[in-house]
Amino acid sequence: MTAWHQVFEAYLTLRQAMGFKVCGPRSLLRRFVDFLEQQGATYITHELALTWATEPRTVQPAEWSRRLSAIRGFARYRSATDPRTQIPPAGLLPYRPQRAAPYFYSDAEIAQLLQATAQLSSATGLRAQTYVAAFGLLAVTGMRVGELVGLDDKEVDLTLDQLTIRCGKFGKSRLLPLHPSTGEALRHYVAERDRCYPIPQSPSFLVSEQGGRLTQWSVRRTFVALSRQIGLRGPAASHGPRLHDFRHRFAVGVLLRWYRDGVDVECHLPELSTYLGHVKASDTYWYLSATPELLQLALERLEQGQPQRVRP
Hints:
Layout: H1 3-17, H2 23-39, H3 46-53, H4 61-78, H5 107-117, H6 126-141, H7 145-149, E1 156-157, E2 162-165, E3 174-177, H8 180-196, H9 216-230, H10 244-260, H11 265-276, H12 281-290, H13 292-304
Helix pairs in contact: 1-2, 2-4, 3-4, 5-6, 5-9, 6-8, 6-10, 10-11, 10-13, 11-12, 12-13
């Protein structure tokens, strides 16, 4: 093993020991270390970091920033044993991702979508039942699509009407209480699922017509087809309302209700952040600026002065 690869492996071992995921950085940094060896470099410089991060030129600026960010952490580690190391400044290749404009589904649109979903044809009828449960869960919990398809049967407690998201987007687990009506709908789904598959073919809570786990691709494909069918998208439109917009609708709905009920939103925002699985409260604050009605309510609250804080 070469000297650079020894440093690289030691860095990854340290990150793993500290609880960080290393799958993404491992692939990027291995290529960077190969580049350093090809260049005959004995230490990391700004020039070497920039040259590698911006090659090939066809790569988008977002990828440049991601590559340089991986180098930055590695260089910071290396500087502890080699003071010649130059750590790329944080603003060297700045990039601010642009969020897609969210779509706020109306109650009527969700009802129309679920009605169309209930008409999906299949040999056993399970396909329609599964997708009604899937889209319904997305709408009433704000969970991510990846969390939905990754949900195992053992993580859904329909006695207590709650489900557990294990290892969500950022490796965080959380408990989601469900409304009694949601629990009742899911119990109906489980009865139909178990009727079709008395012997489970998969540990998954939501299963396909064949009894296996749903994939994100199949869920998105089904959603797009139904969206076109009910007019949410044009017949050939590649863009339109997304599954992720269910999450937006859920978060905005909670915040609107809090403002209208006089709840101290700042006090309770961490609760919503936890429910949504956000790492930072700032990710939840984004919904305020992205929704004109919420922003207006927030401004009115500031002008009127904060109400007394209420306890959960």
